[in-house]
Amino acid sequence: MEEKQVLIFGGTSGIGKELACLLSERGMSVTVTGTSSCSVGLPQNVRVLPVAAEQLMNAQMQSSVPALQEFYDTLESCDLLCVSYGPFVSKPVHQTSLAEWTTVALYDYALPGMLVSRALNGMIKRKFGRILLFGGTRTDTIRPCKTNAAYAGAKTGLSVLVKSVAACYADSGITCNAVLPGFVTSVPDGQESVTAVSVAREALHLLDSKDLNGNLVTVGNTAF
Question: Using CA atoms in the order 22, 199, 201, 43, what is the torsion angle rounded to 10 degrees?
């Protein structure tokens, strides 16, 4: 694993940043997306590509992103893909706007799906791949949600993506798993938080193993 190429989408803060540090310590070649102003604390050998989710998903913006082709080249050549990104919307259904429904569907589900699709082509050719996605708290199955149905619905949909990739590409040496963190930020009253580094360590365990495939791993206290 030491010489593998890693791409972390959303790797300049939070869980993604902690995971980038851990993988870099292992001697892997790590690239993250984000802004250079947010790269404080990352190891010097971690490459930062200034590519934003909005730029990837907006055809009109793509021509103005100098690093876009470099990003796609990295995506198609990476051995490990981690997607640690997804905007959170907390509103009851009757107050959730069209823009908010569109945002979570686009960035919490369609974006990870697109990244996985493009990364798979190279992984299939190389007969190796590790894909790690990050779901939401308690999105391992269909549940009722009082305040975040839009977000939880999109993150629950990632479970279908994880299970599908795991089932269809295992013969190509590819695994796909998801970490479902407990409350890292915005911790409800009476709940305990889990640290970003704790989540990253569990994520590293999934990336290390060729035998863990199609798993939805809960990290931290998620009981309501």
Answer: 10
